[in-house]
Amino acid sequence: MSKFLTEAVKNSADVLAQTLDSVFESLKALQEAAEPLLNSPTVAKSDLVTLEPAARNLIAHHAGLVDGAGVAIAPGLLVDAHTWMQSWHTVGGEVGFTRHSLNPASVNYYDYTHMSWFQHPVASGQPSLTGPYWDFGGTDTTIITASLPVVGRGGRISVAAADLSVHFLEVTFLRSLGKQAASVALITEGGKVVASNSARYAVGRSGPILGETHPVPFQNVPAPWKIVFTP
After folding, report:
1. How far apart are CA 5 and CA 73, in angstroms?
2. 3-class DSSP state of 136
């Protein structure tokens, strides 16, 4: 394996780690804004509008990468809704409130409590990086979600989350990697392809990819992503 390829892969891994670690650093501001609010004796949906500045700042600071941000509330925490998502997304260049269908009787019911991006932080108390996946009933796009637990009243755990553009990550990966003759792919711990320079590895594909590997050295999230490369 050429020294040039090995150095390119290492550079790409470092750039991706810095990019995603910075998202989690910014996501902490939303987490910190939500925690005192969700520890109040009573919290209603209308109280959650105070989270908007933190969400908008997160989206603006990572323009192009972060498509949306918000907080998914722990079931039973609000006084006027069993479940609720207070989130904002970029549509047509403008940031607006995202309305989710949270009625179990609806054909478009979005049960976020069964989503991995919600379940992992709740179960582990740790940051999570989930995807790529099709966010059916949410944003109806292919995304990766960064999420953090938010401990509220009675120990109920809500989740602060940011939706990331897979396309932006693909461009970041390819630019940092440079032109290579070898096939190179960025994959998650579950074996899903996030980005690749080869038609052999489609984004979202699951399954083993053989070759040499280099870990993505995240600091802010225990997500064992890696770059796989073959001649």
Report:
1. 45
2. coil
User: 3-38 and 166-177 are packed helices; what angle lies between their axes, rounded to 10 degrees?
Assistant: 150
- Whether 157 and 121 have beta carbons less than 8 Å apart is answered as yes
Nearest-Å Rg of the Cα atoms of the chain is 18
**Amino acid symbol at 29:** A
Q: pLDDT of 127-142, one tens digit each?
A: 999 989 876 655 667 8
Helix then strand then coil, % of the chain, to nearest 5: 35, 30, 40
Distance of CA 68 to the CA centre of its chain: 10
Q: Rounded distance, CA 46 to CA 56, Å?
A: 17
Which strand (E) or helix (H) includes residue 173? helix 166-177
- Give pLDDT tens digits for 41-76: 999 999 999 999 999 999 999 999 999 999 999 999
Produce one character per residue of 107-126: b if its CB has 16 or more CB atoms within 10 Å, e if not.
eeebebeebebbbbbbeeee
Q: Rounded to the nearest 5 degrees, what angle is found at the Cα of 134, between the Cα atoms of 130 and 138? A: 90
Helix (H, G, I), strand (E, B) or coil at 60: helix
Indicate the length of the chain as a whole number.
231
Amino acid at 129: L
Q: Which residues pair with 158 in a beta bridge?
A: 150
